[in-house]
Design brief:
heterodimer, A: alpha+beta, Beta-Lactamase, Immunoglobulin-like, 3 domains, 7 helices, 23 strands, 40% strand, globular, B: five-stranded antiparallel β-sheet, 39 helices, 13 strands, 48% helix, flat, golgi apparatus (chain A), cytoplasmic vesicle (chain A), Adaptor_comp_med_subunit (chain A), protein transport (chain A), membrane (chain A)
Chain lengths: 416, 916
């Protein structure tokens, strides 16, 4: 189990430590820092020190390093650490060194509430928020005046009920339930434009503000699409198995209802194409770059927020390009060419072309850059998924309901 | 209005300031003060001095203040056990509070205070809390039992807490059940006897399965892990457990998913006679495993390490999912390497084209490590998927054409393996390989190339020239290249004896006479003797058919794999090592194994290609061809001084011509006889420097003394050889040692009798330490006086420092660390040792034989660091750090001692031992 937690800032200082069993000296973090010096962005998540195991995640510029003395399930720890960051973000809207330092008492109280002797105690933000009120200016002032604290002295009701994720006595004036269907296209496109691999990672995120104990049922037009799903604990798995509908009592507020994966078995539509041409000559002459982007299989929707990121070969010194749309920038240190295009309006296809200066005598062979593509398509779930209806039981009011679809690029690579 | 204000300090002394605030009458001020204390604690400042003042704030109605004080207590109680007792009363009182939150908090905090005296008071409240009416208190108390077990196992067993915990397994509240399971698992793991204290049985398992559906995600992980340790009675029970667990595969929490995978993988083993069920389960396992790969990179990494095991155990599960393992260019490197590994495992005839296309793409990426592994992967594909070998080879050739140095080298290494797997198929490409000979600078690539040249010597016209060109820099080569060169030349000679005699003699002399590497020397001598005694046998040995390279040389050994399958999702699965191999303090008897299979016996083991040394047809004639050698004589006697007229006397040159050819070949090593090693003499227990001439005959009036120092079984000795080179007999020998730095004095008389003219005698003089001390320069200088009937002779010699190392020179790790830190940096001396041979392990072994103890070995960025300690007879401790870089003959030695004067002689000793 987790013995201790250290939070480390980018310059390698431990600025928070919490021990759930005996105190482990912070020098144990040296093993992490050593690995970090070796490769700042690729620190292996599991490290072995002579007497301890260090399991770490990096998020938002800080690294959380959990230390264990014995055999432990690494995923368990990693999941927990992510949950810690999620909670901090939920409480303080961000998880940075400054913010943690500003709220260290709440942070410490939270950590103590989340883990006991290395066993997770309460990680649901609903329960935590009942135990320890999130700080806000109004409450701080009120507390100073009345002498109250933001630690609750009664046991949260959800803690032991069958629906631990929901607190009781929720009341809203406007009852609303919003669903966001977000699909991310992960793809690798090879030089010739053929798809090497493509898959969709989908999420249904909800923001549900309903009074009482509503029991919701979400039905899809085409549930057959799903072959690989994972659910929030609130979803009744049996009904999904038998009827392919999502039946659940939702947590209060925002949460991820389900995530799904549409993969290698089905054909995935690729909504964008990039025509590229990069020639580099090793004799010191200027090379040429020509890129054109266009929509493809978008089902009539518009591509927005299109941006291309190219990690150029090391030999490229600079680029001087002209784009007929959007802005471009080239960072000669990191060798990243960024072209921010924005919306693609047909019939004009965005194009960028120009010359590329190459270090003379540099070896240009064997350098195959890859284009990282970003885009969003509003009002479209590229898999074709559609929600058919949402029914509510167990409450008398009529909620306001809404579903929003959006498709984004996930890890979308085009090889050049 | 943020908490950062608590970090600001005044000049007056923080602790003092806090103390007065803590004792303030105002509640608000007290609370603020406690917050400041906690703030200092979070950043690692020592605020233990405030213990009594903070504890005084404990009695309060304010829950936040109480919690803060408890936080402080948990951190510092251990350092102030007597003060901690002050808190007991409040705890006991709180355990009776009407508010369950406070009861739980009290029992929870009490368990965290690891002070023996407190634990005595803990028992009663804990017993009550385990039966509390509120499930929140019960579940907290369950964890507390585990805490108590950690502090005092006997108390938990004696007080009957285990039974109470067992009762909680059937609690009505799933959260309580989950925590009880977690506590029990931890107690079982930590159990002193190594065997579980509480066994699961069918009814409890049933209760766990019921609780599984209702408890929190973390509870599910605990329950699933407990289930994985349970062996169902029959396949029906296994079947029903499987069915109830399968829904967990769709959980959003990756830890739950992986734990469920573990249980299923284990149970599937029991269901092997129900093939249909197994294939249904296999189908269900694939999607969740794939989903894990779309999570954060850290999760991906752990998932991939586990998928690696799953794929080895049941390749069918993911055989259609190849594409998800394709590498994205912005994956972290640790994810890339793992994906690559799995791609190769999944490669089959059906998908090989795709895989090769990808691998070729990867081979042009930027990251060198990854590119190397990709090239290597192409070779592994060629070996694994036979029909694709042709394509793989042509892909490799294309890559060689890129002339990117490390790609070429890596390609040559794998092509060597391909040649071994498919003999007589792709040798046509050898000429292309030979073109790149000059660019190879890595030992492994050079060794591979040399191997290829030797193996196919008969097809490469200028094989002798190629090998000869390598021989020029023989001594600068890495050991593995030297070994390969030796073998390759011998192969060449056996294949083309006519024109390569000179070459083989040259390489044999290089290997046996000029090399310090025992492996190389041994191999050289073996070849030499083989060639000189029985060339036919030599041919049979050196040119024997090699075992075919197995398709999956990198597969885990099946029993280890089975054990690891039981540990899916744990650290063991990430390291691919059984937990016993790396988890400290783990009982030896808790190895997990897969349940025995059902009715069907083990399926036939996949046929391993076996090696049958092929008695080549027409071998006799081949032997006859061997240069019409005179092998008519009887098999040669064991001594290398055989008079066989081998190679028309050609090898005689090599044999050295003298009456003691073997000893002549290894001049200067007469005592430790290198050839003796080959013939089975035991190696000396510790390094003995060769004898030196201490007193030359011309100064000793005909008496010549050679000597050295040894340490055997803890006894220091001076071994001397007295030779009488005078014309008259000598007698009345006696010896005296001058006062010296280490207080060495003779512990016995010199036992040399009369020496006739021309005679010699060996004498071993036992030495003791503790005699009169006088500082000498150099420190290990020893002045000796030897008397005989002719005169008294004086000479000086150097005591090699290593004989002065005592056998109790091993420091405890911790002591080593603290001592190293304590000794000031000014007392550190560095030294570089050239021409180091051998690995860190062999060096450490050599050192141990000489009373230099290796405390720890670490590998830092490819460098091996050995931490060693030794103690001199005069109780000077010396701490050393030896830095070795594989492939680099230079080693750096850092020495720390309170008496640094000893450094230079210790460095000499190190050099001598390392090179021995």
């Amino acid at each position: 189990m987790i013995h201790s937690l250290f939070i480390i800032n980018p310059s390698g200082d431990v600025f928070l430590e919490k021990h759930w069993r005996s105190v482990i000296p912070r020098s144990v973090c040296d093993y992490y820092l050593e690995a970090q010096r070796a490769s700042p962005y690729d620190v292996p998540p599991v490290l072995a020190a002579p007497h301890h195991y260090l399991i770490s995640i990096q998020r938002g510029g800080v690294a959380l390093v959990a230390v264990s003395k014995e055999e432990v399930a690494p995923l368990f720890v990693i999941e927990f650490l992510h949950r810690v960051v999620d909670t901090f973000q939920d409480y303080f809207s961000d998880c940075t060194e400054t913010i943690i330092k500003e709220n260290y008492v709440v942070v410490y109280e939270l950590l103590d509430e989340m883990l006991d002797n290395g066993f997770p105690l309460a990680t649901e933000s609903n329960i935590l928020k009942e135990l320890i009120k999130p700080p806000n200016i109004l409450r701080t002032i009120a507390n100073t005046v009345t002498g109250k604290s933001n630690v609750s002295s009664i046991l949260p009701s959800g803690q032991l009920s069958n629906v631990p994720w929901r607190r009781s006595g929720v009341k809203y004036a406007n009852n609303e339930a919003y669903f966001d269907v977000i699909e991310e296209v992960d793809a690798i496109i090879d030089k010739s434009g053929a798809t090497v691999s493509a898959e969709i990672q989908g999420y249904i995120d909800c923001c549900i503000k309903l009074s009482g104990m509503p029991d919701l049922t979400l039905t899809f037009v085409n549930p057959r699409l799903f072959d690989d799903v994972s659910f929030h604990p609130c979803v009744r798995f049996k009904r999904w198995e038998s009827e392919r509908i999502l039946s659940f009592i939702p947590p209060d507020g925002g949460f991820r209802l389900m995530s799904y994966h549409i993969g290698s078995q089905s054909v995935v539509a690729i909504p964008i194409y990039v025509r590229h041409n990069l020639t580099l000559r090793s004799n010191g002459e200027q090379g040429r770059l020509d890129l054109t982007v266009g929509p493809k299989q978008t089902m009539g929707r518009v591509l927005e927020n299109v941006a291309l990121e190219i990690c150029m070969p090391k030999c490229v010194l600079n680029c001087s390009l002209t784009a007929n749309q959007g802005k471009y920038s080239y960072d000669p240190v990191s060798k990243v060419l960024l072209w921010d295009i924005g919306r693609i309006e047909l019939p004009k296809l965005p194009n960028i072309r120009g010359s590329v200066s190459v270090a003379s005598g540099a070896d240009t062979s064997g350098a195959n850059p890859s284009i990282n593509v970003h885009f969003t398509i509003p009002q479209l779930a590229v898999s074709g998924l559609r929600v058919s209806r949402l029914d509510m039981y167990g409450a008398k009011y009529k909620p306001f309901k809404g579903v929003k679809y959006v498709t984004k690029a996930g890890k979308f690579h085009v090889r050049m | 209005m943020t908490d950062s204000k608590y970090f600001t300090t005044t000049k007056k002394g923080e602790i003092f300031e806090l103390k007065s605030e803590l004792n303030s009458d105002k509640k608000e001020k007290k609370k603020e003060a406690v917050k400041k204390v906690i703030a200092s604690m979070t950043v690692g400042k020592d605020v233990s001095a405030l213990f009594p003042d903070v504890v005084n704030c404990m009695q309060t109605d304010n829950l936040e203040l109480k919690k803060l004080v408890y936080l402080y207590l948990m951190n510092y109680a251990k350092s102030q056990p007597d003060m901690a007792i002050m808190a007991v009363n409040t705890f006991v009182k709180d355990c009776e509070d009407s508010n369950p939150l406070i009861r739980a908090l009290a029992v929870r905090t009490m368990g965290c205070i690891r002070v023996d005296k407190i634990t005595e008071y803990l028992c009663e409240p804990l017993r009550k809390c385990l039966k509390d009416e509120d499930p929140y208190v019960r579940k907290t108390a369950a964890v507390c039992v585990a805490k108590l077990y950690d502090i005092s196992p006997s108390m938990v067993e004696d007080q009957g807490f285990l039974d109470q915990l067992k009762d909680l397994l059937s609690d009505s509240n799933p959260m309580v059940v989950a925590n009880a399971v977690a506590a029990l698992s931890e107690i079982n793991e930590a159990s002193v006897s190594g065997r579980p204290l509480v066994e699961m049985n069918a009814p409890t398992i049933n209760k766990l399965l019921t609780a599984l559906n209702e408890c929190t995600e973390w509870g599910q992980v605990f329950i699933l892990d407990a289930l994985s340790n349970y062996a169902p009675r029959d396949s029906r029970e296994a079947h029903s457990i499987c069915e109830r667990i399968t829904p967990r595969l769709a959980h959003a929490n990756a830890a739950v998913v992986l734990s469920a995978v573990k249980v299923l993988m284990k149970l599937m083993e029991m269901l092997s006679d129900e093939t249909e069920l197994v294939s249904t389960l296999s189908r269900k396992l694939a999607p969740p495993l794939v989903t894990l790969l779309s999570a954060e990179p850290e999760v991906q990494y752990v998932a991939l390490r586990n998928i690696n095991l799953v794929v080895q155990k049941r390749p069918d599960i993911l055989k259609h999912e190849m594409k998800v393992f394709f590498v994205k260019y912005n994956d972290p490197i640790y994810v890339k390497l793992e994906k690559l590994d799995i791609m190769i495992r999944l490669a089959s005839q059906a998908n090989i084209a795709q895989v090769l296309g990808e691998l070729k793409e990867y081979a042009t990426e930027v990251d060198v490590d990854f590119v190397r592994k990709a090239v290597r992967a192409i070779g592994r594909c060629a070996i694994k998927v036979e029909p694709s070998a042709e394509r793989c080879v042509s892909t490799l050739l294309e890559l060689i054409q890129t002339k990117v140095n490390y790609v070429v080298q890596e390609a040559i290494v794998v092509i060597k393996d391909i040649f071994r797997k498919y003999p007589n198929k792709y040798e046509s490409i050898i000429s292309t390989l030979c073109e790149n000979l000059d660019t190879l600078d890595e030992p492994e690539a050079r060794a591979s190339m040399v191997w290829i040249v030797g193996e196919y010597a008969e097809r490469i016209d200028n094989a002798d020239e190629l090998l000869d060109s390598f021989l020029e820099g023989f001594h600068d080569e890495n050991a593995q290249v030297q070994l390969q060169l030796l073998t390759a030349v011998v192969k060449l000679f056996l294949k083309r004896p006519a024109d390569t005699q000179g070459l083989v003699q040259h390489v044999l002399s290089l290997a046996t006479q000029d090399s310090d590497n025992p492996d190389l020397r041994d191999r050289g001598f073996i070849y030499w003797r083989l060639l000189s005694t029985d060339p036919a046998a030599a041919k049979e040995v050196v040119l024997a058919d090699k075992p075919l390279i197995s398709e999956e040389t990198d597969l885990l050994e099946p029993t280890l794999l089975d054990e690891l399958i039981c540990h899916i999702s744990s650290l063991a699965s990430v390291y691919h090592k059984p937990p016993t191999a790396f988890v400290e303090g783990r009982g030896a008897g808790v190895r997990k194994s897969l349940p025995a299979r059902g009715a069907v016996s083990d399926e036939p083991q996949s046929q391993q290609p076996t090696v049958i040394p092929n008695q080549g047809i027409g071998q006799d004639s081949l032997i006859g061809d061997l240069l019409s050698m005179d092998i008519g004589g009887p098999p040669a006697p064991a001594a290398p001084a055989s008079n066989l007229d081998l190679l028309a006397g050609g090898l005689d040159v090599l044999l050295g011509g003298g009456p003691e050819p073997a000893a002549g070949g290894v001049a200067g090593a007469s005592t430790t006889g290198l050839l003796g090693d080959i013939f089975g003499a035991a190696p000396p227990p510790s390094y003995v420097p060769p004898k030196q001439c201490w007193l030359p005959a011309d100064k000793g009036k005909g008496l010549e003394i050679w000597g050295t120092f040894t340490r055997q079984n803890g006894q220091l000795r001076m071994d001397m050889t007295f030779s009488n080179k005078a014309m008259q007999a000598m007698s009345g020998f006696a010896i005296q040692l001058n006062k010296n730095s280490f207080g060495v004095y003779p512990a016995g008389a010199l036992s040399v009798g009369a020496l006739a003219a021309g005679a010699r005698a060996d004498a071993s003089l036992p030495l003791a330490v503790g005699g009169p001390v006088q500082r000498m320069d150099p420190l290990n200088n020893l002045q000796v006086a030897v008397k005989n009937n002719i005169d008294v002779f004086y000479f000086a010699c150097l005591i090699p420092a290593h004989v002065l190392f005592t056998d109790d020179g091993q420091l405890d790790k911790r002591v080593f660390l603290t001592t190293w830190k304590e000794i000031p940096a000014a007392n550190e001396v560095q030294h570089t040792i050239q021409n180091v041979i051998g690995t860190a392990d062999t060096i450490a072994q050599k050192m141990t034989l000489n009373n230099i103890y290796t405390i720890a070995k670490r590998n830092v960025e490819g460098q091996d660091m050995l931490y060693q300690s030794l103690k001199l007879t005069n109780n000077i401790w010396v701490l050393l750090e030896l830095k070795l870089q594989p492939g680099n003959p230079e080693a750096t030695l850092s020495l720390k001692s309170r008496t640094v004067e000893v450094a230079s002689c210790i460095f000499q000793a190190y050099e001598a031992i390392i090179k021995s």
